[in-house]
Specification:
By secondary structure, this protein is an alpha+beta fold. Helices cover 18% and strands 22% of the residues. Among the domains are: 64 residues, no CATH class; 30 residues. The protein is elongated.
Length: 156
């Protein structure tokens, strides 16, 4: 994705839809900063070129190789922050695993049958019970309204 020399003052909001990008060029733009959160979901990004005045998103620790030339900074090959030896492994709650979510960003995904807040709920949503209660309430209310309102419908 080549966005070089587009006179960008900030990261375009539509960039969030390009999470499948492998190469991204933001050079020759008057960008004051590039927030790391702008690259959430960019797990396939292998090469990112930013203006020289800016740092690589997530910092230089988030990339295997950071190269600086006359007018740009090239950030190549994202590191997996979940198994980084430089820092402590990302603390995910019990019943979840750490997964990369872009340069320097992580997410905790629930494992197996666990779901919900902090992966504390086990099994699946009780669809049969929920559907039964909802169906019974709907039928009962419908019969009640039909019975009370039908004599008004027969009147001329």
């Amino acid at each position: 994705l080549d966005l070089s020399n587009c006179s960008l003052q900030s990261v375009p909001p539509g960039l969030a839809e390009a999470t499948a990008a492998i190469v991204l060029d933001l050079t020759e733009n008057p960008l004051p900063a590039v927030p790391s959160a702008s690259f959430r979901g960019f797990t396939d990004l292998q090469s990112l070129a930013v203006p020289l005045a800016l740092e690589c998103p997530g910092g230089s620790d988030a990339w295997q190789d950071v190269t600086v030339d006359r007018s740009s900074r090239l950030c190549q090959e994202q590191r997996n922050p979940c198994n980084s030896s430089q820092q402590l492994a990302w603390p995910c709650p019990e019943n979840s695993v750490c997964a990369p979510d872009g340069p320097g960003l992580v997410q905790c995904l629930c494992e197996g049958p666990f779901h919900g807040y902090r992966c504390l709920r086990e099994d699946t949503f009780p669809m049969l019970l929920f559907g039964g209660i909802l169906g019974t309430a709907t039928v009962s209310l419908s019969l009640l309204l039909w019975g009370t309102q039908r004599r008004k419908a027969k009147s001329p």
